[in-house]
Amino acid sequence: MKTLLLLLLLIPVSVSAQVALTPIEVRRANELLDRGQRLEDQHRTDSTELAAYRDAMATAAELQAVTDGQLKDCEELVGIGQERERNLEDTVRNASKIAKRRERLAWILGGIAAAEAVVIGVVYGVKR
């Protein structure tokens, strides 16, 4: 009976010994499981970072569009400012020409007035 009991106890040990993994295999399996877990964690992190990157790129594209619009507006304002500057320069140049003409006219009228005074003086002097 003891032999039969001993055999019954040994059979499961021998079967489990054939199925059981060696410590090296167990360590390797654990390493593979750990590596798989790290890769899953890294994948989650990469997915999160990729989503954040895509959001940042979309925001950057929107900001670029706004900046382009503002640049166009600024260029338009610069053009308007340059046109106004040219108009002011033309106005100043024309006003300067008008002032010179008036100055010449004043000299001419002054000369005419002096000539009239001389003529009147001569005529008055001759009559007396």
Q: How many angstroms separate the termini?
A: 183 Å
Low confidence ranges: none
Approximately how much beta-strand content do the residues carry? under 5%
Instruction: Briefly note the structural class of the backbone.
Output: mainly alpha
Helix content: over 70%
Q: Please count the beta strands (DSSP E, at least 2 residues each).
A: 0
Rounded Rg:
54 Å
What profile does the largest beta sheet have?
Answer: none
**On the 0-100 scale, what is the average pLDDT?**
86
Structure description:
The chain is mainly α and 128 residues long. The chain is 96% helix and 0% strand. It starts with a helix and ends with a helix.
